Queue: 2 jobs
Job 1
Amino acid sequence: MKATAKAHTNIALIKYWGKRDEALILPTNSSLSLTLDGFFTTTTVDFQANLTRDQFMLDDEPVEGESYQRVSNFLDIIRTMAGKENLYATVHSKNDVPTAAGFASSASGFAALAAAGTKAIGMQLDNQELSRLTRQGSGSASRSIYGGFAEWEMGGKTDGSDSFAVPVAPAQHWDIRVAAVVLSSTVKKVSSRAGMKRTVETSPFYSGWIDSIPKDLREIKDAIKTKDFEKTGSIAEANCLKMHATTLAANPPFTYWHDTTMRVMQTVQEMREKGIPAYFTIDAGPNVKVLYLPEDEGKVKETLRTIPGVTDVILSKPGQGISYL
Amino acid sequence: MKATAKAHTNIALIKYWGKRDEALILPTNSSLSLTLDGFFTTTTVDFQANLTRDQFMLDDEPVEGESYQRVSNFLDIIRTMAGKENLYATVHSKNDVPTAAGFASSASGFAALAAAGTKAIGMQLDNQELSRLTRQGSGSASRSIYGGFAEWEMGGKTDGSDSFAVPVAPAQHWDIRVAAVVLSSTVKKVSSRAGMKRTVETSPFYSGWIDSIPKDLREIKDAIKTKDFEKTGSIAEANCLKMHATTLAANPPFTYWHDTTMRVMQTVQEMREKGIPAYFTIDAGPNVKVLYLPEDEGKVKETLRTIPGVTDVILSKPGQGISYL
C-alpha cells in the first residue's frame, strides 16, 4: 500500500485571499494560477498495518509539531474516505522548492500528499475529486493538481463539494516565464493565514476586493486564451496590488512589503517603460515574482539581479500537473 | 486697498481624498489637520484702480500660466463677493515652505491670499466665512485658517455653503511635533488632483474609504481632546495607509510611494518597537511626515537622518492660524 507522487507549486495570478470556512478551507473568492516547472515536492506514502501513528519525514528529517499535525489530519480525511480509519502511514517528502524563493511549499506538498496518499490506500480519484480533497489540506494546493493555468472555483455550498480547481489551459498552451526574485531580508511578521483572517474581519476594503474578482477572472481567462501577454500581466499585477492594498486598511494595518519589494516593483515598471513587457505579482510575503516572455529572459534576469537587496533570481517555465512515479 | 496676511501650511491626519464637485472644491469626506509653525506663506494684495489685469509675484518672480490663472480666478470670487468686478490687484507672495519638504504650498498660499485679498478689498469675514471662501482656491487651505487642529466639515449642500473648516483645538492645547523627512528622489508621476480623481472614479475600495472616515474622525478628535498620543498617532497612520491603499486598486493602479518611503515607514515602526512613540503620515507624494513628542526630538531626528535615501529632516511645532501684518 505504497505510492509516490510529484506535484509542482503554483503562483496565483488572481489571488486567493480570504476564507469563508476555516475548517473546510472554503475561499471567499475564486482564484487562478500558473503551475511552475522549477519548484516541486515528491512524496511517498506507505500505509502499514503495524503502525500506531503516522510518521512524517521531510527531506529525510522527522517532523513533529504543527506541520506533523497538518499532515496527519489530512491523512485522516483520506482514511475516512477509504473507510480505513485505523491504518497509519509513513510519509516521505522531498521539497525542491527553495525556501528563499518565497513559494509556499504547502501547495506542492499537499497536492503530492493527496495524490500519493489516495493511490496508496487504493482509491482512484479523478482530478476534480483529487483537487477537492487537496483543498482541505491547503487551499492553493487545489490548483497544483493541474499543469499550466488552473482556476480554483470557490463554489457556493457549505459542505465544499463544489469548491475545487479546474484546468484553464495546459502548460504547453503558452510558454510565459516567471522569475522568482529572492530578497536579502525576507522577514514576515504576519503569516498568510493570520493576515487573510485579519483582512477579512477588519478591512473596509474587503468587500470591494471580492466584488472586483469576477471581472479580473473573466478578463484574464480571455487574455490567457488569446495569449495576450500585456493584458494577462497587467490584470495579474493590478490584482496583486489590490490584494496587498486590503491589508493596509486592516485593523491594525499591516503590509508584506519591504523597501526592496517596492524597489523591485519600480524596476519592473521601468522595464516596461523601456519596452520590455514584464509584470510583477507578490504573494503574502516580501518576495516578488516577475512574469516575462522567453525572448526577454537575458535582459530581465540581468536587470533584476542588479537591484540592491536582491540576492538571487530563479527562473521557471510553466509546469505539469500531478504525476505518479 | 492693500493688506498683508500670513498663513501656515497644515498636515492632514485624516486625509482629504476625493472631490464630489471639482469646480466648487467640495470633498467626498471630512478631514482633519494640524497647522504647522515651520512652514508659511506671507501675501500682500493691493487692489489698484489703474490696473487692467492682476499681477502675481511669487518670491519676487512674476508668475504666469496655470498658477497665475488659479490666483486670478480666486480673486474673481473675492471681487464678485465685494461687488467690485473690475478692480484688479497686484499680489506679492513669499513662501517659507521648502519645496523639498513635500508640503503643498497651496494650503498656506490660498489661506494667505484669501485673508489678504478680502481685507484689502474692504470685507470683514469671520473665520468660517473665510474658510469657506479659501476652500474654493484649494481644499486643504480651508483648514489653514485656524491654528492647531482643525476639521474641514465636508457639508452636504450642492452650493458648498456648509463646507468649511472649524477649529478642533488650538496650537497651545498640545505640543506634538512633526518631522518632515526629505527624500533624495521625490519624483511624482501622478498629481494629487489627477490621483484623487482616478481613485474616486475607478477604485473598488473608494466606498470603503468613505465609509470608514466618520469613525476615524470621531476617534481622533477624542484622542486629541484627551492628548492621547498613541491613539492620535495610530489613527493618523492607519488613515494614511488606507488612503494610499485606495490608489493601488485604481485603474490603472498607481502609488506615491518610493522604496525610501517604505524604508522610512519601516523605521518609524521599528522606533515604536524600541519604545519611542512615533507615527507617520504621507500625503499624495513620496515624502513622509513623522509625528512625535517633544521629549523624543533628538532620537527621532537622528534616527530619521541616518536612513539611506533621506537627505534632510525638518522639524516643526503646531502653528497659529491666519494673522494680518
Job 2
Amino acid sequence: MAIEGVDIIRSAAFLGAGFCMGLGAIGPGVGEGMAAAKACEAIGKNPKEAGLLTRTMLVGQAVTESTGIYSLVIALLLLFVV
Amino acid sequence: MAIEGVDIIRSAAFLGAGFCMGLGAIGPGVGEGMAAAKACEAIGKNPKEAGLLTRTMLVGQAVTESTGIYSLVIALLLLFVV
Amino acid sequence: MAIEGVDIIRSAAFLGAGFCMGLGAIGPGVGEGMAAAKACEAIGKNPKEAGLLTRTMLVGQAVTESTGIYSLVIALLLLFVV
Amino acid sequence: MAIEGVDIIRSAAFLGAGFCMGLGAIGPGVGEGMAAAKACEAIGKNPKEAGLLTRTMLVGQAVTESTGIYSLVIALLLLFVV
Amino acid sequence: MAIEGVDIIRSAAFLGAGFCMGLGAIGPGVGEGMAAAKACEAIGKNPKEAGLLTRTMLVGQAVTESTGIYSLVIALLLLFVV
Amino acid sequence: MAIEGVDIIRSAAFLGAGFCMGLGAIGPGVGEGMAAAKACEAIGKNPKEAGLLTRTMLVGQAVTESTGIYSLVIALLLLFVV
Amino acid sequence: MAIEGVDIIRSAAFLGAGFCMGLGAIGPGVGEGMAAAKACEAIGKNPKEAGLLTRTMLVGQAVTESTGIYSLVIALLLLFVV
Amino acid sequence: MAIEGVDIIRSAAFLGAGFCMGLGAIGPGVGEGMAAAKACEAIGKNPKEAGLLTRTMLVGQAVTESTGIYSLVIALLLLFVV
Amino acid sequence: MAIEGVDIIRSAAFLGAGFCMGLGAIGPGVGEGMAAAKACEAIGKNPKEAGLLTRTMLVGQAVTESTGIYSLVIALLLLFVV
Amino acid sequence: MAIEGVDIIRSAAFLGAGFCMGLGAIGPGVGEGMAAAKACEAIGKNPKEAGLLTRTMLVGQAVTESTGIYSLVIALLLLFVV
Amino acid sequence: MAIEGVDIIRSAAFLGAGFCMGLGAIGPGVGEGMAAAKACEAIGKNPKEAGLLTRTMLVGQAVTESTGIYSLVIALLLLFVV
Amino acid sequence: MAIEGVDIIRSAAFLGAGFCMGLGAIGPGVGEGMAAAKACEAIGKNPKEAGLLTRTMLVGQAVTESTGIYSLVIALLLLFVV
Amino acid sequence: MAIEGVDIIRSAAFLGAGFCMGLGAIGPGVGEGMAAAKACEAIGKNPKEAGLLTRTMLVGQAVTESTGIYSLVIALLLLFVV
Amino acid sequence: MAIEGVDIIRSAAFLGAGFCMGLGAIGPGVGEGMAAAKACEAIGKNPKEAGLLTRTMLVGQAVTESTGIYSLVIALLLLFVV
C-alpha cells in the first residue's frame, strides 16, 4: 500500500502533460499573433482585399495551430490513454 | 496513513496544472497583444475601416486564444478529472 | 502526526498556484502594454478618433486579458477547491 | 515537535507567494513602461492632446495592471488565508 | 510489488514525451507565424498574386512543419512503442 | 532543539522575500527607464512642453511603479508579519 | 527483480531522446520560417520569379532541415538501437 | 551544537539577500542606462536645453532607481534585522 | 546484478548525446535560415544572378552546417563507440 | 568538530555574495555601455558640445552605477560583517 | 564490482562532452549564418564582386568556425584521451 | 579527518567566486563593446574629432568597467581573504 | 577501491571543462560572425578596399577570438594539468 | 582514504573555474564583435581613415577585453593557487 511503480508512472505522465501543453502554447501563440498583427496592418492599408487577407490569415494560422494541437494530443494521451 | 502513491500522483498533477496554465498564458498573451497593437495602429491611419479591422483583430485573436484555451483545458483536467 | 500525503498535495498545489499566476502574468502584461502603447501613438497622430481607438484598445486588451484570467482561475482553484 | 505537515504547507505557500509576486511584476512593469514611453512621445509631438493622451495611457495601464493585481491577490491569499 | 525498473523506464519516457512535444512546438510555431505574417503583408500589397503567395506560404510552412512532426513522432513513439 | 518546523517556514519566507523583490524589480526598472528615455527624447524635440512631458512621465512611472511596490509589500509581509 | 542497470540506461536514453528532438526542433523551425517569410515577401514584389524563388526557398530550407533530421536520427537511435 | 534551526534560517536569509540585490540591480541598471543614453542623444541635438534635459533625466532615473532601492532595503533587512 | 558502473557510464553518454544534438541543432538551424532568407530576398531583387546567389547561399550554409555535423559526430560517438 | 551551523551560514553568505555581485554587474554594465555609446554618437555629430555631453554621460552613468554599488555593498556585508 | 571512481569520471566526461559540443555549436552556427546572409545580400547588389565576396565570407566564417572546432577538440579529448 | 565545516565554506567561496566573475563579465563586456562600436562609427563620420571621441569612449568605458572591477574584487576576496 | 576523492576532483574538472568550452564558444562565435557579416556588406559597397577591409576584419576577429582561446586554455588545463 | 574535505574544495574550485571562464567569455566576445563590425562598416565608408579607425577599434576592444582577462585570472587562480 506504499508507493508503487504505477504511481510514479502516472506522476511523470501528469507532470509531462503539464509541461507539454504549457511550453507548446508559447510558439503558436506568438506566431499566430504575428500573423494577426500583419493582417490587421495590411487590411488597414488595403481594405478592399479584407476578405482575401482574412482568409490568408486564417489559413496561415491554421497551419501554425498544428503544433499547438499536437501538444494538446500528446497531453491528452498522457492524461487518459497512458 | 503515511504518504501513499495517490498523494504523489495528485501533487504532480497540481504542479503540472500550475506550470501548464502559467507557461501557456505567455504565448497567447504576447501574440494577442501584438494583434491589438497593430489593429490600433491601423485604425488610427484608416478610421473608416474600424469595423472591418476590429472584426479582423477579433478573429485573429480568437484563433490565437486557442492554445491558451488548450492549456486551460489540460489544467482543468489535471485538477478535476485526474 | 508526521508528514502525511495531504500535506504534500497542498504544498504542491500552493507552489503550483504561485508559479501559475506569476508566469501567467508575464504574457498578458507585456501584450496589453504593447496595445496601450500603440493606441497612445495612434491617438497622438489622429486625436479625432480617440473614442474609436480607446474602444479598440479596450476590446483588444480584454481578449488579451483572457489568458491572465485563466491563470487566476487555475490559481484560485489550486488554493481553495483542491 | 519535529517537522510536521503544516510546516511544509506553509513553506510552500511562502515560496509560492514570493515567486508569484516576483514573476508577476515583470510583465505589467514592462508593459506599462511601454505605454508610458509612447504616451510621452505622442504628447511631445502633439501637446494639445495631452489630456486625451494621458487619459488613454492611464486607461491602458489600468487594464495592464490587472494581471499584476491578480498576482498580488494570489500572493496575499497564499500568505494569509491559506 | 515495489518500484521496478520498468516503472522508471516508463516514467522517463512520459516525461521525455512531454518535453519533446512541448519544446518542439516552439520553433515551428514561431516560424510558421512569421511566414503567415509576411504572406499577409505581401498579399495586402499585391493582391493579384494572392493564389501564388498562399501557395508559397503553404509550401514554406509545410517544410517548417516538418520538425514539429518529427517531435510528434518521437513523442508518440515514447508513449506507445517503447 | 534540532531543526523544527517553524525554522523551515521562516527559511522559505526569507528565500521567497529575496526572490520576490529581486525579480519584481526587473519589470518596473526596465519599464520606467523606457518612459524616462522617451520623455528625454520628446523634451529634446519640444522643450516648450517640458512641464507637461515631465508630468506625464511621472504619472506613467507612478503607475508602472505599482507592481514594484506590490513586490515590496509582499516581501515585507514575508519578513515581518509571517 | 529490483531496479537494474539496464533500466537506468533506457531511462536516460528516453529522456535524452525527448530533449534531443524537442530542442533540435527549435532552430530549424525558426530558421525555415524566416526563409519562408522572406520568400513570400520577395514573390509579392517580383511575382514573375515565383518559380525561381520557391525553388531557392526549398533548397535553403532543405539544408536548414538537416540539423532537424540529425536530431531525429539521434532520437530514433536512442529509442530503438540502443 | 550540531546544525540548528536558526542556522538554516540565517543561511536562507543570506542567500535570499544575495539574489534579491543581484536580480534587483538588473532592471534599474538597464532602465537608467536607457534614460541616460536618450538624454545624451537629445542634448547632442538640442544643447540649449541641456539643463532641462539633465533635470528630466535625473527625475526619471530617480523614479527608476526606486525598485533598486527597495531591493537594497529588503536585502539589508534580510542581513541585519532578521 | 545490481547497478554497476558501466550502466552509469552509458546513461551519462546517452543523456549527453541527446543534449549534444538537441542544443547543437539550434545554432546552425537559425543561422542557415538567415542565409536562406537573405538569398531569397536578393534573388527577388536581382533574379538574373539566381545561380550565383544560390551557389553562395549553399557554400555559406555548408560552412554553417559544420558545427551541426560536429554535434552529430559527437552524439554518434557517445552512442556507439563509447 | 564536524559540520556546524556557522559553517553553513558562512557558505550561504559566500555563495550569496558571489551571485549578488555577479548578477548585479549585468544591468549597470549594459546600461552604462548604452549611455557611453550614445554619448560618442552625439559628440561625433556635435563636437562643440563635447564637454556638456561628457558631463551628462557621467551624471547619467553615476546614477546608473548606483545599483551596481548597492550590489557591492551587499556582497561586502555578506563577506565581512555577517 | 560495484560503482567505482573511474565510472564516475567517465560519466562526467561524457556528459561534459555532450554539453561542450552542444553549447559550442550555437555561437558559430548563428555567427556564420549572419555572415552568409550578408554575403548573399551584398552579392545580390554587386554581383560583379561575387568572387571577392565569397572569399571574404569564407575567410570570416573560417575564423568564426574556430571556436566550434575548439569545442569539437575538447569534446573528443573528453571522449577518448581522458 | 573527514569533511569539516571549513571545507564546505571554502567550496562555497570558490564556487561563488567563479560565478561572480563569470556573470559579472557579461554586462561590462557587452556595454563596452557597444561604446567601442559607436565610437568607431562616429570617428568614421567625423575623423577630425577622433581624439575627442576616443577620450569620450575611454571615459565611458572606464565607468562601465567599474562593475566588472567590483566583481573582480569580490571574487578575489572570496579566494584569498575569506 | 570505492569512490575516492581524486575521482570526484577529476569528475568536476571534466564537467567544468565541458561547460567552459561550450559556453565560451557562444560569445566569440556570435561576435566574429557579426564582424564577418559587416565586412561582407562593406566590401559589397566598396570593393576597391577589399584588402583593407579583410585585414580589419581579421584583426578585429583575432581580438574577439581571444576569449575563446582563454576558454580553450582553461579547458585544456582542466583536462591535462589538473 | 575516503573522500576528504580537500577533495571537495578542489572539485568546487574546478567547477567554478569552468563556469567563470565559460560565462566570462560571452560578454567580451559579443562586445568585441560589435566593435569589429562597426569598424569594418566605418572603414568601408571612409577608407582614408583606416589607420585611425583600426587604432580606435583596438583601443576599444582592449578595454572590452579586460573583463575577459579578469575571468581568466580568476579561473587560473582557482586552478593553481587555491
